[in-house]
């Protein structure tokens, strides 16, 4: 996208560090700019959230949380997140800058990709996505626009988790249509996303790379969503017959309507892709190697086949030349002696073998009849699919029965435990119960805002959840040690007033440190000491006049940054210069009453002979002089001495 001359961000210095150079792209949630990090002297991409979204505190909280999640990922196939912050009312995210194009740009230019190109890109994306899934992060918005192809050949995934923070009201119709094209059936019907939802989106992207088009199209997003929820994605080879069947099967597996029938995460799909890659490339190499006009002669020795240069159809010199040396005469006596010795050794060995077989047969009968061999050890089946676990037990002569169990560590649909457990010995024909994970057990959190930290922690742990991060901030409206707000760590959902969650998951708390102390009127040293007791730093700032605060004392303390105040933050102290000086006006020669009024209105205090105010004189006398004299400066509120004229001359 070309730079807009009216864009006020071009040339702006953000947070005193990032100099905005040009605009790269604009989306429904934010605009991305190319900027220079002046501190580290490198180019970065800075994503700035749109102003109308910045007013939504819940949205900003999700923006920050997802940025922290993405920053935890360090992988060659994931765009690095360097920094996140807020400048004035502007939330921003600083990322690695990758000059290049997106996968969407590549598809627009080339239509469709070869099988090998598709597998190369898919492998890189799955590698980065596997690292994210291992860290418990679900992308939620995989599409060609979020796959970056750098000029130096690197392939990276961007925009991790940020799509979850955008609702339909903030997306344009085109942006919504682009996202709908990759939504899994469970997201369309139930609004639930996990690692298998990312796999579905990746399957749709693979179909698009192979065929050059999306499997479902429609004039309205709802039409496309309906097809995702109700139709089966066709095999790519129905559009392009030359696509290998192995890639057909990979796409069908990834885009199964039932999440249980898909790979459980990116690592599982990546392992399968590596096997497919070998088969497809080997098949391609075999076809390329066929030369229709070449006739290969048979019977080549291994030595000839391994030679650097071969002449087909010519026998090796050693085999082509007949030996002219007559063979030696055989020594019959020695040969007979040697045969007798071999037969004798063979007899000893046969006898020994018979004895060993007899002993082995007896031991085997005891072992499997009444010894330990009559029992079968239960294999380790945790994390296996019920079908695979049942197959393993059947091969061991055991029966399987299914049960259910909630689990916060084993994905739903996989075996969470067995009864009896692994390594336990069961009689042949016995039954092993496979407890299939139902995922984490649902729980309902109580109202947490307003509780003391210990009470909130107990309420969370009593439900077998746990406290994740605790953010302590100063808040004059909430008592110290009291919970201000709470959110789910998994998706930043607000649970301050309670709400649904799952057993074993973490809850983040924001806790009050109490109000910021009032240091107005204190000396700089006293104010600094008071703030230091609260864990806050102070530094002298602006000096200004004050009629009420003595010179050298603190007028007010202001936080150096925006947003919540935390321990370690710095406050700027505004210092009083005392009352503002006022120039004494010239009232000499004016009537006594007029001169007094002018000086009093300017805030001066007056001293004079009270007798001058007597009615009989006040209309006759004038101001004879002032001390300080007219034209000099005196602090506002200071005293001026007035001298009246003598009414009698």
TrEMBL record:
GO MF annotation: an example: ATP binding
Gene3D superfamilies assigned to the protein according to its UniProt record, in alphabetical order: 3.30.10.20, Phosphorylase Kinase, domain 1, Transferase(Phosphotransferase) domain 1
This protein's record includes keyword Transmembrane helix: yes
CDD domains named among the record's database cross-references: PASTA_pknB, STKc_PknB_like
Source species, domain of life: Bacteria
Ranges of biased composition (kind: Polar residues): 635-649
Annotated stretches, region: Disordered: 627-649
UniProt KW keywords: ATP-binding, Kinase, Membrane, Nucleotide-binding, Serine/threonine-protein kinase, Transferase, Transmembrane, Transmembrane helix
Name the record gives this protein: non-specific serine/threonine protein kinase
Native source organism of the sequence: Cryobacterium algoritolerans
Lineage: Bacteria, Bacillati, Actinomycetota, Actinomycetes, Micrococcales
Originating gene: pknB
């Amino acid at each position: 996208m070309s730079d807009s001359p009216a864009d006020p961000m071009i040339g702006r210095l953000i947070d005193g560090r990032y100099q905005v150079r040009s605009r790269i792209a604009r989306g429904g949630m934010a605009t991305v700019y190319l900027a220079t990090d002046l501190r580290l002297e490198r180019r970065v991409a800075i994503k700035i959230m749109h102003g109308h979204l910045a007013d939504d505190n819940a949205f900003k909280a999700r923006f920050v949380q997802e940025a922290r999640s993405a920053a935890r990922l360090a992988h060659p196939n994931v765009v690095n997140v360097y920094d996140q912050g807020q400048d004035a009312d502007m939330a921003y995210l600083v990322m690695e800058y990758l000059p290049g194009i997106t996968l969407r740009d590549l598809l627009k230019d080339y239509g469709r990709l070869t099988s090998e190109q598709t597998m190369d890109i898919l492998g890189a994306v799955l590698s980065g996505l596997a690292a994210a899934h291992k860290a418990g992060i679900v992308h939620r918005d995989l599409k060609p626009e979020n796959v970056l192809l750098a000029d130096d050949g690197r392939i990276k995934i961007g925009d991790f988790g940020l799509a979850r923070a955008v609702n339909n009201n903030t997306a344009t119709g085109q942006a919504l249509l682009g996202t709908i094209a990759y939504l899994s059936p469970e997201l369309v019907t139930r609004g639930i996303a996990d690692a298998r939802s990312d796999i579905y989106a990746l399957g749709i992207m693979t179909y698009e790379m192979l065929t050059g088009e999306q499997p479902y199209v429609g004039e309205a997003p709802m039409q496309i969503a309906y097809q995702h929820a109700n139709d089966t994605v066709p095999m790519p080879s129905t559009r392009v017959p030359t696509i290998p069947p192995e890639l057909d099967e990979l796409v069908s597996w990834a885009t199964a309507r039932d999440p249980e029938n898909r790979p459980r995460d990116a690592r599982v799909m990546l392992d399968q892709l590596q096997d497919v890659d070998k088969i497809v490339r080997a098949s391609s190499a075999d076809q390329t190697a066929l030369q229709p006009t070449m006739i290969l002669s048979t019977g080549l020795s291994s030595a000839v086949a391994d030679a650097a240069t071969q002449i087909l159809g010519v026998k090796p010199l050693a085999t082509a030349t007949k030996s002219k040396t007559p063979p030696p005469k055989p020594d019959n006596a020695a040969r007979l002696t040697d045969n007798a010795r071999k037969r004798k050794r063979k007899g000893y060995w046969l006898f020994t073998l018979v004895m060993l077989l007899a002993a082995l047969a007896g031991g085997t009968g005891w072992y499997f009849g009444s010894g330990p061999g009559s029992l079968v050890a239960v294999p380790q089946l945790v994390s296996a699919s019920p079908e695979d676990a049942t197959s393993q037990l059947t091969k061991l002569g055991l029966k399987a029965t299914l049960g259910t169990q909630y689990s916060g560590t084993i994905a739903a649909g996989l075996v969470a435990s067995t009864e009896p457990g692994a390594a336990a010995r069961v009689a042949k024909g016995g039954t092993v119960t496979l407890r299939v994970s139902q995922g984490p057990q649902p729980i309902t959190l109580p109202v947490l805002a307003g509780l003391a930290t210990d009470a909130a922690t107990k309420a969370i742990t009593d439900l077998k959840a746990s406290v994740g991060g605790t953010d302590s901030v100063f808040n004059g409206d909430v008592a110290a040690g009291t919970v201000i707000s709470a959110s789910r760590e998994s998706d930043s959902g607000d649970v301050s007033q309670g709400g649904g969650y799952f057993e074993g998951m973490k809850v983040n708390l924001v806790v009050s440190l109490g109000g910021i102390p009032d240091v107005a009127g204190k000396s700089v040293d006293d104010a600094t000491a008071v703030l230091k007791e609260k864990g806050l730093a102070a530094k002298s700032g602006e000096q200004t006049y004050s009629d009420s605060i003595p010179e050298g004392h603190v007028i007010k303390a202001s936080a150096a940054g925006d947003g919540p105040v935390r321990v370690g933050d710095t406050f700027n102290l505004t210092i009083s210069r005392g009352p503002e000086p006022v120039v004494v006006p010239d009232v000499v020669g004016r009537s006594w009453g007029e001169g007094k009024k002018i000086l009093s209105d300017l805030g001066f205090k007056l001293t004079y002979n009270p007798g001058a105010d007597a009615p009989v004189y006040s209309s006759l006398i004038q101001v004879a002089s002032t001390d300080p004299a007219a034209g000099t400066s005196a602090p506002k509120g200071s005293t001026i001495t007035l001298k009246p004229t003598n009414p009698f001359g």
